[in-house]
Amino acid sequence: MDIIISINDKINQEETVALYKANKWSAAEQPSLLLKAINNSHSYVTARVNNKLIGLGNSISDGYLVVYFPHLLVDPEFHGKGIGRMIMNKFQEHYAGFHMQILTSDANSVPFYNKLGFEKAGNTEPKWIYKGNEH
Q1: If we measure between CA atoms, which residue out of 62, 59, 63, 83 comes closest to residue 73?
Q2: Is residue 130 part of a domain?
Q3: Which of 2, 43, 49, 132 could form a disulfide with 26 if both were Cys (CB 3.0 to 4.6 A apart)?
Q4: What is the pLDDT of residues 31-70, one digit of tens each?
Q5: Which pLDDT value is given to residue 126?
Q6: Which residue, among 53, 52, 90, 84, has the nearest Cα to 71 in the 3D structure?
Q7: What pLDDT sits at residue 73?
Q8: C-alpha to C-alpha distance for 15 and 73, rounded to whole angstroms
């Protein structure tokens, strides 16, 4: 299986929404806004097999010091094959040397991000106003 990892590869609404639906993410309910959000990210990383989008992550950044990683999704059929790690490794190459890299993780994903070197952010406590329903 040849997995191609790319930064800012062209994506379309249909394949993006399909990936979000496969992961039961509520952002799939707003397809045109979802594609605009990804395309307006500072960068995004895709994973493809036989030209099929099987993974996607995006970043929001000031471009110099701080980067935030809001989304990382892998098609459930490909979970456990290292694709999420490949996507995050590509981000690490792209943002090497940044002062702060931030993400918010569901409890189930904490061990994954810990293995990548992320740790609890001091005494911080995440807060949000959220219109989704999957968390």
Answers
A1: 83
A2: no
A3: 132
A4: 999 999 999 999 999 999 999 999 999 999 999 999 999 9
A5: 83
A6: 84
A7: 97
A8: 13
77 part of a folded domain = yes
- Could you tell me the CA-to-CA distances from 12 to 17, 25, 106, 118 in Å, in that order? 9, 17, 27, 30
DSSP 110: H
pTM tops 0.85, yes or no: yes
Whether residue 125 is contained in a domain is answered as no
The residue behind tokens 């459930």 is 76
In terms of Cα–Cα distance, which of 61, 46, 120, 131 is closest to 95?
61
Tally of domains within the chain: 1
Q: In the numeric block, which tokens belong to residue 122?
A: 């001091």
pLDDT digits (tens, 9 = 90+) for 84-122: 999 999 999 999 999 999 999 988 999 999 999 999 988
Each residue's pLDDT tens digit, 89-98: 999 999 999 9
Exposure string for 17-51, b = 16+ CB within 10 A, e = fewer: bebbebbebebbeeeeebbebbeebebbbbbbbee
Specify if 134 maps to a domain. Answer: no
